[in-house]
Amino acid sequence: MNRARTVRNLAGSLLFWLLSLVIIVPVVIILLNSIKTQSEADIMNFALPKSAVWQNYAVVIQRGKIPRAYLNSLIMSVSSLVLVILSSSMAGFVVSRNPSRLNRGLYTFFFLGLIAPLNMAPVFNLIRSLGLINRLFGVIMMFTALLIPFSLFLFYSFMTKIPRELDEAVMIDGGGPLRLFWQIIFPLLKPVTVTLIILNFVNTWNDFMLPLYLLYDSEKWPITLTIYDFLGRFKRDWSLVSANIVLTILPILVVYGFGQRYIIDGMVSGSLKG
Amino acid sequence: MKLSRYYPYWFVVPALLIYVLFFIFPSVNGFYLAFTDWSMARDIGSLKFVGLENFRIILDASMGIRSSITNTLYIAAWTTVLKNVIGLALAVGLVRKSFRSKNMLRGVFFLPAILPPLIIGIIFTSVFKPNNGLFNNILVWFGMGAFTKAWLAETAAAFGAIIAVETWRQAGFHMAIYIAGLQVIPEELYESADIDGAGSWQKLVFITIPQLLPSLTVNLILSLISGLKIFEIVYSLTNSGPGGTTAVMLTEVFDQFSKGRYALSSALGVIMFMIVAVIVMVVYGFVQKKAGAHNE
Prior knowledge:
Chain A has helices at 2-33, 38-42, 55-63, 66-97, 101-115, 120-129, 136-159, 165-172, 177-188, 190-206, 209-214, 223-234, 238-273. By secondary structure, chain A is mainly alpha-helical. Chain B has helices at residues 3-6, 13-33, 53-59, 66-94, 102-110, 117-127, 134-141, 155-183, 187-195, 200-211, 213-228, 232-237, 249-258, 262-295.
């Protein structure tokens, strides 16, 4: 009986490991292709390269203007992160602590942003009339607006776990709302803040649509768009395309490696609360 | 004590201002622009009201835009079914306590959800390419060489590829939500079912599925929305091809936008908004009703 169960469990894990190959294989082949020659990379297989062509990376970094693109991506991700965290933590604090009619109305109003799809032509119109077209700042403000609802909800629900007695202690001491929030409450929000920083980083780094509509100068492009430069120019030289892919997803993979727990838990709890 | 003294309303103002200006305003503005003749040729300052003209063009089958709506619904329906069936199956398998490597496997299955969809689409153009593509090579390897084809060059196969890739991207994400749902089902329910002599099928139908209703709702709504919003995968995998037959709403929104037909693009965005709104309300209402019936 017990042995039969062990065998069954083993067969079960084996099955799931086999299934996981569906995810692992394409990713590994891209990694391998990034250090193959063009003709080797044209054949999608597991063969090891005859000799590792690290040169591919040098070519991609140089011709794809990768350092510039990394910098653009970083500027857009970090700036919108700072704006999102500051604005949505303050808002989440007040909406959660003071359940007035107005605040409950605001809660529902922000909820719309979680579901409604963005209409891009009117967005283009707005950004253009603000003089922000082809500027990183325009994309930063759009990222911020898009991430506020989700971030506000995570802050909101985390806030309910922080005891109100803390607030009262500060009030008795005569501290104002600013001191209460920034010195006492905000430091306690660290776990959810870390989760949001990671999740929002991944979301902004991966985004393709906003830069596509709002930035037409390739000097302004984030890393996700550089690949398009390549597909055209090299007519699918898979060794170079693969090297570009690896450079694009590397930061994401590193973040995932360290913060996997935060990412999965954050995305799950965020969607369950929404 | 006056709450608003310690929790002042102005704390909400920065978030509210950014949200209203950059999200709400363009969304509402879209409803107005959709009824105008805004285009590259016509300046935004001198727009004329054209009534339902843009919607007529979109819904006129001979204009070639309408099919993008039906294509989107088709893809959204199939991917919703597949993502949820596969996600749930993975979750049930990977929630067992006896499974030692389950955390590692969860990490692997979840991985595609955090990769850029654009990059995923590009990776799969190599998987599905006709000569030496991974998928065809695997078919040959298993002795099914007769089934190889240029997957992205035939409409039906291209749809299959889009649906498969979108499922590949999101099944692990839905798995994670189902796992969270499975973990909060009280163990006692299964124990008492065991005492009553229930089989595993009965346990699934009478305990697991009703208890999973909240995660099922969330998963259905999220997978429908992400299916309707599909863009990058189609853009990079088939580029709406062959011959525009796999165009979806958001690729069409971009296409009309690039041609400078801004009002038409806005109108399509409005239709998208309506479809998402209706579907969310219907699914939500349906599940609420079901849950209500269960509690009685």
